[in-house]
Design goal:
Two copies of one chain form a homodimer. Chain A is of the alpha/beta class. Chain A has twelve helices and eight strands. In chain A, the strands form two sheets. The first copy, chain A, has a five-stranded parallel β-sheet with strand order 3-2-1-4-5. A three-stranded mixed β-sheet of chain A has the order 6-7-8, covered by helices on one side. In chain A, helix 4 runs parallel beside helix 5 and helix 8 crosses helix 11. Chain A is elongated, with a radius of gyration of 22 Å. The C terminus of chain A is likely disordered.
Chain lengths: ~300, ~300
Amino acid sequence: MPKFKLPPRLPFRRLGIAGLGLIGGSLAKAFSPLAGLEISVYDSDPNTLEEAGRIRRFKKATGDLEEFLGFDLDLAYLCMPVHRNIEMIREMGRRKYGPAVTDSGSTKSATNLAALEAGLNYCGGHPIAGKEVAGFSNSSGDLIRGCLFILTPDERFGRPQKELFGRLKALHELLECDIRRLSPAEHDRVYSVVSHLPYLSAAALAGTVQRLEGFPALPYAGTGFRDSTRVGASPPEKWVAVVMDNAENLTRDLGALIDVLTEMKTLVSGRKRPELFELLDSIASYRRKLPEKEKKSYRLK
Amino acid sequence: MPKFKLPPRLPFRRLGIAGLGLIGGSLAKAFSPLAGLEISVYDSDPNTLEEAGRIRRFKKATGDLEEFLGFDLDLAYLCMPVHRNIEMIREMGRRKYGPAVTDSGSTKSATNLAALEAGLNYCGGHPIAGKEVAGFSNSSGDLIRGCLFILTPDERFGRPQKELFGRLKALHELLECDIRRLSPAEHDRVYSVVSHLPYLSAAALAGTVQRLEGFPALPYAGTGFRDSTRVGASPPEKWVAVVMDNAENLTRDLGALIDVLTEMKTLVSGRKRPELFELLDSIASYRRKLPEKEKKSYRLK
């Protein structure tokens, strides 16, 4: 009787990662130590490629799109901004691209539709991980290990996607990710309120302080302000693409947030103490349902 | 020649702390190890008093207001909710209370006015420290040590306050606090935007998710949502008192926040990508001016 459990079989052997930003770089760094997995990378920025070359973990690295699309891969993993992922998916469609394709974008509906129209063997994914800083130099395998990970299958892709879904699940379980499943539309609905709206709200709060004329209030800020606005310091490039791609959900959710704030303003200006207490107490009870848990930590044995 | 620097003289010897909640308890725990300082405490809750007794650090502990007001003190430090501090200040005025008085309340204008009318030797203070949990059992000396600390003198108090200001500054410097000075009105103006508005904004964001019918979005939340709404889980008792006491500033600041969000909503719904980028980029640059520093850490040698 064996005394140890055999490691799971690798669901893919040859991985190509396009886009070595914070997420693409972190995925590449998290996957690269796995024995038997071969990783090739693409990035349009020569400095990023040079930096990636220095860590000596990748089989091939290219800044040439043609070359990347010609790599012999089992899975192409698109980690560029959403609109660039979509452009590459369309190009793949024109070439009748054979390997399986996934992406790590923060919105899923438009990318999913592009992949469906391109006739690819595709299933979308989204690692729920981030930092206020961008780029390969800030990436780290630890960002991805143990994180919540959403896969977004769409039954219109039919049987081949079912098989791909299983392999993507197995691939990310190698990183101890906590895998959940949502449809692309459900995903964009949920992440509009729990991710994209919090970003806009944090930025709006920092913007309110910024607009205070003659009151340099920032030096007096404590932990509450720091926490509430931290994500507002993120580089806006990535966020603007996400917000625009999810504009319909966000327009409605911004309206809902403005409604709650307007209700608060009415209660505050009218000195309606019991009503304000009731509103805030109900919200606090709801928010306390979110456990202050650390993500599953991954330890190399 | 002495080889060590003499420790500073104690600015007060007999301290009375009224209200052993998170802040009062933390102040009591931070001051109590200082040699030569004698601390007596008051709290209206018998369980809190019993808990405070168990740590064996206080000279006297009472649940009787009369008794507390009769203690022979150099400084009465009021750490109850703002409206209760004001009630005690009025009672002190009626009794021509002799010892110096300060308070740790999150708003300063109303308390300052009450102390002026009561003819007390008073100067307000505000330790910029907090947690999402309340009460003596969650208090800790470490919460106060090294924190930003605002003193709010008002020239209408005249010469005795100048001397009290200096002694309060020296007292909190024993805890390595970073002391700054604002008038009570400036204080309430600044903390409306950097503390009270972020609380309401965090609560409004959590409230928006709460109101999403049929979408249990909370289980999908990542770090961004957690950070942006953390303070919204705080017990609302304290916050409602603060918000009501600072209602005028907050009504204006809630209006300013709603304006920024409405501007964002217009840009998002109109798919105005460059304009949205410009707005968010300017805010991100502003927010990055706030260093992600830890508070000064206090180490016992």
